[in-house]
Each structure stands twice: as structure tokens, then as C-alpha cells.
Amino acid sequence: MKKNTSQGNENPFPILTTERLLLRRFQPDDIESVYRGLSHPEVIKYYGVSYTSLEATQEQMDWFAAIEKEERGIWWAVCNKQDQTFLGAIGFNNWSKENRKIEMGYWLLPEFWGSGIIREAGLAVCEYAFQKMSVHRIEALIETENANSKKIMTQLGFELERVMRDCEIKDGKLISLEMYAKLNRI
Question: At what angle do helices 31-38 and 54-69 cross, to 10 degrees?
Fold first, then answer.
């Protein structure tokens, strides 16, 4: 992972690069891509947020900016390094500096599924969290039915710690979540 920072900001945003990817701050013109992802039935099937209009998606864009400004987390737009095509999003929220832990989330536009993008981006952001954010523990809550995300968690070196049975209601039904965690071993 290489790290660059944007210029001219009082608090530079960490731009991360990998072999194929550019992870950057969300820009206003990303709203259409965010809406396309967070309104797509396959993307939102296991994701906790969805939007029914472009206007409503502004709430998500505002949230990305707010958690960064308030230092409660950070989310990146995941883009193709070569042509800057928007692919999805990855990041952290619920940052507890006192407890040195943070929660990870991600989503990817369906046309890019199965290409290792989230694994590649996930390795970069986990490294960033451990090295630059003084995080010791990264957590991820995955719906028990989400086999693809559970596979990604394993690929990223997360371990299943527990299952929280019937702990949330989604679409009027009780769902169970699996808690995965990765610790900074350095």
C-alpha cells in the first residue's frame, strides 16, 4: 500500500493505492455511483443502508463527510487506478479511540464482484488503520446468510468470534450477525 495525501486541506485525506486500486475521498459527483450501489437489490441485500432516490443518497454523502470531520471513522471511494472508474466503497465507523477499536464495512457494485477488489482494498485499509490510526482491533458484523462477506473476512485474516442470534430486525424479520475481528499483532 502506498499512501498519498490530498493537498490544501488542513487535515489531509489519506489517499491509498494498491496494485489495481485508488482509494480516495468521496467527491460530490460520486453520488450517482453511490446511489446505483445503495439502491441495487443485490448490494443492499446484506447491507444496512439503502436509498430510493438520488436526493435521498445525499444523506450517505453527508455521513461520509461527517464521520471523517468528527473523527468517528473514515470511508474511501474504491476506484480503478487506471481509469478512475468508481467500483464501490470501504471504510471504518464507530471508532473508539479510547478502546483502540473500529468497525469495518464495504460494498461493491455487482459488475465487479468476484474480482478480489474488496480483498485488495481491505488489506490496504486494515494496514492503514493499524499503522496510522493507532487501532488495535478491527471488527466487522456480517449477516449469517452472507457467505461472500464471511469468505472475505477469512481472506483478510479476520476470525469469527461469536454469533449474535436474532439481534436485529431487518425487513420485519429477526436476523443474526456474526462478529469477526482482526487484531494488530505488531
Answer: 110
- As a whole number of angstroms, the distance between CA 153 and CA 65 comes to 26
Q: Residue 163 forms beta bridges with which residues?
A: 178
pLDDT digits (tens, 9 = 90+) for 17-41: 999 999 999 999 999 999 999 999 9
- The beta-carbon contacts of 37-41 under 8 Å, at least 24 apart in sequence, are 37/88, 37/89, 37/107, 37/108, 37/109, 38/107, 40/109, 40/110
Q: How far apart are CA 56 and CA 61, in angstroms?
A: 10
Across-strand partners of 183? 137
pTM (2 d.p.)? 0.91
The alpha carbon of 9 is separated from its chain's Cα centroid by a whole number of angstroms, namely 23
**Residue 61, all three cell numbers:** 454523502
Ordered structural domains, the chain, with CATH: 2-135 (3.40.630.30)
